[in-house]
């Protein structure tokens, strides 16, 4: 669906792990290129309007392509590599070798200058390889003469692209996937490995319909979707949630996340994913007529906008540690009368706050803390390749500091909703328990009665949430169990 500027304004990713965006849905066409599904089939939130055709794109836009990326596309054309595969190779290389986010790179000037079909194929290749990378490696590495050998980065990436297309994109002609993967290796410094890439991909093609295509370095009972996640992640989820739930989470993470499954459409609200909206709606419903509201980790601003629409008469303050992201949020909010009155302030909530704007006395606080993002792997597949178990204690300590400092800003009787898009108890229940020890006079309230006051939940979603999304007074959505990303939310109140 083509989004208005306001509805798509809050759809950018957060480097902190908070996620408020989605990707366009992709399907293959018989010619092997990719095209977006019809509006009726997708209704995808946050996606960017596609150009009608490459020939109609602005010459100015084409001229604005960064030289390095433009030269990459020209070199690919000379090597008989499609622009989409060349762009995907370039983006995957950047994601692998830097802290770059795939979503940012997929919306770069160079990618936007491609035809609509090539942009969609690029997106499918990048997200597909990132989602399936560990399984792709498990399929092709046993076919190497030395399975544990260190491959040239270009050869490894070409193999991953080729194997993904052969196993997961049935409408891409196998010869195109195979030949262009070989050319990608050759054109990017791995000419010596071109023969190996060709041989491995031909073997994958031969064996794709046999059990040999499902080789695993994990336990026999592990599904390909589970295998596409780090083993330590699957093990801890299995211990925390059980095997059946883990399989649902893993399957959910391997596809485009659903949209508009929980809520009835509301044209007054920004276009954010259902899990993010659920948290914002829970916070908005927690206090009837708040006079002062704080969103203390606000950027990119989707949840702040929901609070502003639901409480138009309240004074709303949006704080974030990043002045750059807060400035971008400020510009977006100024374009919409519903959010133009929101006040913004740069603040590091890991430290006690003394600014006048953040003086004690908020009736409602949303503390959507930066987190590991393990509940959003369908949207942010690179997280699974970057996150380590040792990162969780560091995240939890920062979250504890943020939450404790936010709790100190509550007015007597005020309510704070603490939330993350993490599935990990260290970042959720443990943080809440620790912060309640740090700050006196705080008690936890049940989230379910508040959630029952959310007006726009569809009847089916309300019934599903009531049956499976509340435990220990908190709200928890699990990907694949609920039709949204994984979120945790706890409601905390300061005693009078």
UniProtKB/TrEMBL annotation:
Keyword S-adenosyl-L-methionine among record annotations: yes
GO biological process, one term: regulation of DNA-templated transcription
Residues reported in the UniProt entry to bind S-adenosyl-L-methionine: 297-303, 320, 348, 368
UniProt keyword terms in alphabetical order: Methyltransferase, RNA-binding, S-adenosyl-L-methionine, Transferase
Biased composition (Low complexity): 47-64
SUPFAM superfamilies: NusB-like, S-adenosyl-L-methionine-dependent methyltransferases
GO MF, one annotated term: RNA methyltransferase activity
Record: active site: 421 (nucleophile)
Protein name: tRNA/rRNA cytosine-C5-methylase
Residue ranges, annotated region (Disordered): 1-64
